[in-house]
Amino acid sequence: MRKWIIALPLCAAVGASPQLSSVARGQATATATAESQTSAKKKRAGLQPVAAVKALLETLDETQQAKAKLEFGSEQRVGWHFIPKDTRKGVPMKEMNATQKEAAMRVLRSAVSKIGFEKSKQIMSLESVLKKLEGDQGRNERNPEKYYFTVFGKPGLKQKWGLSIEGHHLSLNFVFRGNKVLDSTPQFFATNPATLAEDYGEGFPKGLQVLKAEEQLGFKLVRSLSEDQLEEAMLPGDTPDEIRAAGVAQPPTDAPRGISFADLDEEQQETLTKLMKAYTAKMKPLVNKGRWKLIEEAGMEKIKFAWSGAKRPGRGHYYVVQGPTFVIEFINVQADAAGNPANHVHCVWRDMQGDFDLPIK
Fold it and tell me: Are residues 126 and 32 in the same domain?
């Protein structure tokens, strides 16, 4: 009898009891779930701007930190540009090791949306295509790791601080208080080639358009306009050769030009709204939501759309969308590196209340 009494717990200990095994499995599942939730929480925390920037700075040596860290009040904070340069403010990825590069990309991901992150990576990678197209004839170094990271001030949960991520065809500028974005402009994205005419290997298929929506929705809207609407929307004079105030600390303050949102029909209004969302979607959800709150409070009817140039691809064209709180500019007039006409896009979103969280004087 004692053997039987003793044997039952021994059998249960090795899993002979289905009931106890089920309990054990439940405990194991609960533990795994808790560990998974903790891991996910840590991952989310690591993608918060303060944590991501601190993690990057911790990986840098003294020389790199001297480049990467500047005072918040530095004049360089409001210096931005998208043209090729021999050097820029900040520490470039090409001077980072593998661990540092991964940390830098986490900083980028912490500052923008998934869409903005993917487009940023594609723009950086297009430097490899430019290098193939230009060969030894290019005037500028084409390097997908020649993108510079600069931190202004001391990142912290209560402090005001800034971040710049910049290189050829990409300039992202932020002011934070803790993890909250106070300003996210100038927001500049560009591509050359705008549309790939050939297959350039993995990640670069023929027909790739990194900024497809920004161009095609513009074409869709302008081609939908009636003759009377088009007369109101078209800008006088020659098509510009560049966006206005490129590299200038604050946006142009000219009055909005073109046809007003209120003078568009319902379908055209929907197209213009989608066009604007192609720009706001590059930023984090709360920034996106905040921009639209300001736009709607100021009044959609105050937004104007203006066009210059051709209404089909392959010839120079330009548009501007402007409301009380923002201005968008898009231009495609330059040939790409292979000589294909009007295949080189520049586009920007700027804050009419002031870029860099500074008032317009």
Answer: no
